[in-house]
């Protein structure tokens, strides 16, 4: 009695094509493993679900020029025109900047402005669903103001011509979103 095997895929691919398929499959698997491992490198929320104050990150961390962050399932939307910001903060120089993440840890610049005109008005809206978050405004690298989370605030800055104004966030496993929009005369 002769047994016939039915081919599941009737593909006549070369050895090179099979190696490419195997390599792509391996690469996709490694990406999934890396994402799973990075998900555990967030700063743990140590003060409960309804206390949004930072536990580990400090104002000194926020004032530092170089910082890092880790976000999971995040998006950044930017629109509008640029002012005169240069260097690393150039990607934050838009009329409107929005950022959201299912999980965010670390420090990140959200918005930057450098202009000849006065005053500058910032409209900042934020929401935190879990974890800890803090929002600060810096003028030429110096602390200017804290912005309350889970609120919509309008902040008017006078005498900022030729100065760099930066809005930064700090998060510890924060499920959050923030929108910053500037108005210039």
Keywords:
185 residues; alpha+beta; Jelly Rolls; six-stranded antiparallel beta sheet; 2 helices; globular
Give a structural overview.
- There is one protein chain.
- The protein contains 2 helices and 6 strands.
- The chain has a single domain (1-185), classed as Jelly Rolls (Sandwich).
- The chain has 185 residues and is of the alpha+beta class.
Count every beta strand, where a strand is a DSSP E run of 2 or more residues. Answer: 6
Q: Could you name the CATH class? A: Mainly Beta
State the CATH architecture. Answer: Sandwich
Query: What separation lies between the terminal Cα atoms?
Result: 90 Å
Question: How many discrete structural domains?
Answer: 1
Outline: globular
Strand content: 35-45%
Number of helices: 2
Mean pLDDT equals 88
Radius of gyration (CA) equals 23 Å
Order of helices and strands: HHEEEEEE
The class by helix and strand makeup works out as: alpha+beta
- Residue stretches low in confidence (pLDDT < 50, at least 5 long) are none
CATH topology, by name, is Jelly Rolls
Secondary structure layout plus pairing:
Layout (H helix, E strand, L loop, with lengths): L14 H24 L20 H5 L5 E11 L16 E19 L5 E20 L2 E6 L4 E6 L6 E20 L2
Antiparallel strand pairs: 1-2, 2-6, 3-4, 3-5, 3-6
């Amino acid at each position: 009695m002769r047994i016939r095997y039915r081919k599941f895929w009737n593909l006549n691919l070369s050895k090179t094509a099979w190696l490419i398929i195997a390599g792509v499959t391996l690469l996709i698997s490694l990406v999934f493993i890396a994402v799973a491992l990075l998900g555990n490198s967030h700063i743990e929320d140590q003060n409960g679900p309804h206390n949004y104050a930072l536990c580990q990150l400090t104002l000194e961390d926020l004032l530092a020029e170089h910082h890092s962050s880790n976000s999971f399932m995040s998006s950044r939307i930017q629109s509008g025109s640029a002012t005169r910001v240069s260097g690393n903060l150039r990607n934050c120089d838009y009329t409107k900047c929005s950022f959201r993440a299912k999980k965010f840890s670390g420090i990140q610049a959200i918005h930057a402005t450098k202009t000849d005109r006065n005053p500058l008005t910032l409209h900042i809206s934020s929401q935190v669903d879990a974890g800890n978050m803090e929002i600060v405004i810096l003028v030429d690298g110096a602390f200017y103001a804290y912005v309350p989370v889970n609120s919509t605030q309008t902040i008017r800055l006078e005498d900022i011509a030729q100065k760099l104004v930066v809005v930064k966030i700090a998060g510890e496993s924060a499920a959050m979103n923030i929108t910053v929009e500037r108005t210039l005369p």
